[in-house]
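Q: Could you fold this chain for me?
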Amino acid sequence: MGFFDSLFNSAKEIIDGSRQAVENIQCDMEQDSSERYDHPSEPLPAAEVHTVSHGKDVVFMLSGDFTEHGGYTSSAVSFKYDPEHLSVLEWDDENEMTVSLLEGTGDFDEITECIEEYLSGGTPDTEVFEAFSGSQYMFRAKLEASDYIMYFYVLRSDTSDAYDCDVLLLFYPSEVRSTALEKKLTACFDEAARTLTVS
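A: Sure. Below is the predicted structure, expressed as structure tokens.
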């Protein structure tokens, strides 16, 4: 029995040691993640973005921290947060943060549901909601779904079909919530919304 007890205790020590090592790695990763989210670089100067949506010229200002990328199915144009101080290894597609102008809501069903509720006279149940009168936007809202946050402005249009409404969208992982990086992203995004013109 002594041999088996000794073997069992040795195995238990190895398992406990492995478990502690994994916990230490997870803790280090969380600290690294927090560090990069809590100490982002200052926003780069905004540059003018030109695109065409539904045959109309669209212009807005967006920080140089964002570089153009493929976007989503319904994107007229899309930009990915790509700060110079982070390497490709540190910033992968799992942590994608984007600003996109969408021609219709596309695959963003949660946004479609918000618009449908608003068009039917209701107030969407979202973290942030603000309706606008006399503006090019119907409303802005913020909601969380599937570990991501969607902060968006819905452009005013004559359509009664929520799927056809155009949307300016900021999309980022939920883990960025309440960090300095979230403040930076939303400030850059709000500048894009404030400067957007359609002609």
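A (continued): DSSP finds three helices and ten strands in the chain.
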